[in-house]
Amino acid sequence: MTEIRKKANILLVEDNPGDALLTREALEEDPWINITTVENGEKAMDYLLQQKEFRQSSPRPHLIILDLNLPRKSGLELLGEIKQDPRFQSIPVIVLTVSGSEQDIKQAYAQHANCFIVKPVRLSAFTEIIQGIRKFWLDTVILP
Amino acid sequence: MHKPVISIRDKLFSLILPVVLFSVGVTLLLNILFIQRAQRRIADERTGLTEEQISIDLEIRHMTISAILISGGGGILLYVVLFLSLEKNIIKPIENLLKSTRRIADDKDFQTRVPPTGENEIGQLIVTFNEMSGELARYYRDLEASNQELARFAYVVSHDLQEPLRTVGCFVERLAQHYEGKTDEKAEQYIHYAVEGVTRMQKIIQGLLDYSKLQGQADTTMSVDSREALEEALLNLQEKISAAQGRIEYDPKALPKVLFDYNQLMRVWQNLIANAIRFRGDKPPVVKIEVQEKGDEFIFAVSDNGIGIEPHHQERIFGLFQRLDGQDDSAGAGIGLAISKRLIERHGGEIWLQSQAGQGSTFYFSAYKGDIKDDRNQEKS
């Protein structure tokens, strides 16, 4: 029996273009993945609300990968907004960030982050984590 | 917490009853004596005392009783007046002072002021106290501001420095992946050094961040098993120890409970043992862990058979980023001992060493004894 696969939309909220590129490169090996990258929290909200520059084409994401260290609206603020909005709160949010500070971890989970991952230093480890996210969240888990 | 105050006021209050009883008692006793004597006199009337003599006698008796009553009452009155004066000039101001010192000590409320009472010594004491708490408030504010500054600095270090550094490291590696098979040995060496440099700087930043987090006193009063913490540290170091063919010797039964944060104690063990392994000599390293009791503390000793440290270097090895070995050792960022020192000191202990170049080193550290009573209670419940 062949599985029927839908294309998975991922919203990547990441202000560091280098990390965004690495994440895209690691994920886009899978042709079933469609990634949109936004570089700050305000644009992420615009995307979700399908407004401003995203009025035309912004398919609802199946998964959000969120960096906490964002300019202007912080990642934690954005996380809070997403998880308090009944329209978006069911979308799993993966926090992927440089800081592994206890406070950030606590606050992220208190705001209902679905998981918290610290970006590793080495490229091989980073790629492995992105592959892990792909395998678990897109191949193993059934998303809403 | 605090011992209950045995108030001066209560003590003086408790003295009122004895004073009253004493006055009344003495008056009554003297009265009875006089009445008995007068009765005896009246009874002796037949023996020739005149009417006048008796009446004088009775008058003297009345006067004496009145004098006694007046002096008794006066005593009580004097006591009350003295009490009220004490209350107003001494007890109340001291009570206010006590309240304020408590507020400063417990709640760090430096805004508290004691109402001034007057020009006497206690009044002056209150004025000076208020001045002093004002000064304290200023220092405390400054200290908090500088602590916040430090926390902000740590945040900047962790985010704003780590992130671009990570990008550099990742893309150097990506470059190597991209040109795999097309690079020569030299190019690979360059890439290797670049990645090594990034990894090293990452460690330094992480160490700095860890160190800056360890501000102030530890707020632990938990009793932890030093053996458990040691064994967990050894588990973490397993690879390093077996790679160096090292041996760790300790008596599990001798390792006591101490007042320490468990993870922090584990870190102390890990840093000290990792150092002992890292600075080994030509022979396989042997690390001995011993413990001694001293007053309300335990002194732990971690001794090795490594290269040792010359006496004139011993002062600075506990400083930040002080490394005695060359640049090539990427394993140590030179922060392990500085962190250990801070961890031990914030638990009220000390760290020191005895060493001779070529003859190994012994690091000692002290920690308060764990509360045995507490543990028994915990086991029961």
Describe the overall structure.
The complex is a heterodimer of chains A (144) and B (381). Chain A has 144 residues and is of the alpha/beta class. Chain A has one domain (8-138): Rossmann fold (3-Layer(aba) Sandwich), CATH 3.40.50.2300. Chain A is 39% helix and 17% strand. In chain A, strands 2-1-3-4-5 form a five-stranded parallel sheet, with helices on both faces. In chain A, helix 1 (17-27) crosses helix 5 and helix 2 (41-48) runs parallel beside helix 3. The longest helix of chain A is centred in the last third of the chain and has 18 residues, at 123-140. The model of chain A has no long low-confidence stretch (mean pLDDT 88). By secondary structure, chain B is α+β, with helices and mostly antiparallel strands. Chain B folds into three domains: 8-109; 137-213; 223-379, Heat Shock Protein 90 (2-Layer Sandwich). Chain B has eight helices and seven strands. In chain B, the strands form two sheets. Chain B has a five-stranded mixed sheet. A two-stranded antiparallel ribbon of chain B has the order 1-3. In chain B, helix 1 (8-43) runs antiparallel to helix 2, helix 2 runs parallel beside helix 3 (121-178) and helix 5 (226-243) packs parallel to helix 6 (262-278). Chain B is elongated. Residues 326-331 and 373-381 of chain B have low confidence and may be disordered. Chains A and B meet through helix 1 and helix 5 of A and helix 3 and helix 4 of B.
Task: Write out key terms for the chains shown.
heterodimer, A: 144 residues, alpha/beta, Rossmann fold, five-stranded parallel beta sheet, 5 helices, 5 strands, globular, B: 381 residues, alpha+beta, Heat Shock Protein 90, two-stranded antiparallel ribbon, 8 helices, 7 strands, 10% strand, elongated
